[in-house]
């Protein structure tokens, strides 16, 4: 009997011990579960926590933890709120990248929900020998100065990849080809990880390209498919192709919508009760206002308004006197593109409040363009005056804050991969040099630093949009 009694006590003790272990384990899981109910797991290398200590003026440190924006509870975006947003990078932020349970195609990680009100400019003009027989754009020429006397002071010739490329930064993927399916996949993953929703692809009509590249219209199907896999959308940033006119632009719009318009990855924006494709028109001022009036006039038999090929057409604003032209031409809105804050009237963030007011008064869509910095002296060696240092991300954050302060309906980012002008947020290599030239990098931060900063501000922009609704 004594043996049986001791045996029963052992059984009871084991049951109690199992219960306590289960209770402790449950408490741990509860503590490690975020507000969305997703259990925290080890983050991927692309997930970062930005911790900046403003006391003593020390630079940010980067660790492999989650980012998490602190909650900002207010109904209006006052200047105090902007200052509060700017201080976010000085706090221990934990942005949860498990905002939804959508998994990436390549990795078993969850990604933030894409914000379709955030667009990023994307370039497909890069080439490398395995895919294009030679390097394209990476071997960019040094562009001459328009003043012959001034031009004599500067270097000429071309760059010689793979070590020597036409950019002040060096891509983490090396001098890649835009045709490489693996590169496209990685690009879409990076864009999605930053919370961006729309990829605005630089576009030339079939068989056309800029002077440094090859035709790339045939890449659009692959880009649409890849974008769709990551729940991204794609729109076109129409370049000033040879002999571009309102007339042949209409035919090219028809071509685009016939060939790509039905794809689920093709972007449409709700405007005046209709979901219409959106087109950015780079250097739109090169076409006369009188031509635009015909193209964008519903009363003209040659126009596109009211037809099945109608869309939202966004012109480029460079100078202040173009505001009148944007309105009288019939554009639906305007964007500023340039990432150098003082380069044009439109790019100067101090003017954005006036531009937003003008847009609202005239029922136009104002899309400010923000960027992380600007440097193009590897292709325009004489243009150092327009260089804008990144300031460890401060330039980008100031640009974002200025844009959100005017409460735009859409936000554009210049750029994902315009490497020639140093506006990219794509991952960059660290500590790379060629000859006597040392490439810039994102140090002391990791290569995905600007993707993480973008996510922080995209999240804040979404909060602002929610308050507006």
Can you tell me about this structure?
The chain is of the alpha/beta class and 469 residues long. It contains 12 helices and 14 strands. The strands form 3 sheets. Strands 3, 4, 5, 6, 7, 8, 9, 10, 11 and 12 form a 10-stranded mixed sheet that branches. The radius of gyration is 25 Å and the shape is globular.
Features:
single chain, 469 residues, alpha/beta, 10-stranded mixed β-sheet, 12 helices, globular
List the helices and strands and how they pair.
Elements: H1 2-31, E1 49-51, E2 61-63, H2 79-86, E3 115-122, H3 129-132, H4 148-151, H5 181-193, E4 196-203, H6 220-229, E5 233-238, H7 246-260, E6 268-271, E7 274-281, H8 289-295, E8 312-316, H9 322-329, E9 333-335, H10 352-361, E10 365-367, E11 369-370, H11 394-404, E12 411-413, E13 433-434, E14 437-438, H12 449-468
Parallel strand pairs: 3-4, 3-12, 4-5, 5-7, 7-8, 8-9, 9-10, 11-12
Antiparallel strand pairs: 1-2, 6-7, 13-14
């Amino acid at each position: 009997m004594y043996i049986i009694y001791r045996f029963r006590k052992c059984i009871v003790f084991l049951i109690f011990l199992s219960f306590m272990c289960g209770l402790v384990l449950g408490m741990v899981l509860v503590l490690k579960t975020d507000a969305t109910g997703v259990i925290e797991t080890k983050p991927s290398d692309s997930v970062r926590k930005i911790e900046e200590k403003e006391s003593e003026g020390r630079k940010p440190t980067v660790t492999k933890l989650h980012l998490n924006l602190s909650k900002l509870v207010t109904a209006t975006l006052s200047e105090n709120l902007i200052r509060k947003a700017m201080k976010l990078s000085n706090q221990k932020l934990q942005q949860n990248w498990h905002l939804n349970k959508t998994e990436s195609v390549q990795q078993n990680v969850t990604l933030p929900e894409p914000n379709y009100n955030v667009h990023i400019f994307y370039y497909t003009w890069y080439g490398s020998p395995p895919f294009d027989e030679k390097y394209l754009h990476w071997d960019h020429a040094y562009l001459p100065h328009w003043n012959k006397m001034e031009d004599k002071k500067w270097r000429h010739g071309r760059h010689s990849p793979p070590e020597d490329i036409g950019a002040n930064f060096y891509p983490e993927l090396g001098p890649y080809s835009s045709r490489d399916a693996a590169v496209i996949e990685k690009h879409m993953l990076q864009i999605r990880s930053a919370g961006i929703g729309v990829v605005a692809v630089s576009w030339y009509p079939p068989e056309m390209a800029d002077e440094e590249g090859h035709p790339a219209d045939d890449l659009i199907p692959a880009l649409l498919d890849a974008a769709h896999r990551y729940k991204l959308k794609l729109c076109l940033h129409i370049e000033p192709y040879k002999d571009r006119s309102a007339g042949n632009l209409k035919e090219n719009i028809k071509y685009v919508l016939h060939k790509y318009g039905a794809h689920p990855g093709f972007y449409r924006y709700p405007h005046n009760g209709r979901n219409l494709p959106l087109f950015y028109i780079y250097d739109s001022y090169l076409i006369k206002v009188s031509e635009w009036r015909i193209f964008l006039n519903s009363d003209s038999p040659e126009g596109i308004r009211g037809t099945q090929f109608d869309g939202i057409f966004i012109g480029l604003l460079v100078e202040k006197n173009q505001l009148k032209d944007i309105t009288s031409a019939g554009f639906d809105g305007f964007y500023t593109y340039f990432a150098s804050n003082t380069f044009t009237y439109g790019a100067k963030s101090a003017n954005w409040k006036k531009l937003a007011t003008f847009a609202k008064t005239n029922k136009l869509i104002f899309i400010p363009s923000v960027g992380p910095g600007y440097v193009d002296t590897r292709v325009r060696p004489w243009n150092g005056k327009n260089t804008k240092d990144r300031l460890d991300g401060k330039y980008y954050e100031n640009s974002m804050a200025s844009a959100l302060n005017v409460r735009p309906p859409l936000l554009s980012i210049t750029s994902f991969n315009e490497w020639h002008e140093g506006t990219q947020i794509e991952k960059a290599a660290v500590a790379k040099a060629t000859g006597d030239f040392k490439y810039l990098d994102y140090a002391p931060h990791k290569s995905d630093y600007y993707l993480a900063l973008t996510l922080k501000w995209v999240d804040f922009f979404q909060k602002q949009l929610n308050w507006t609704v």
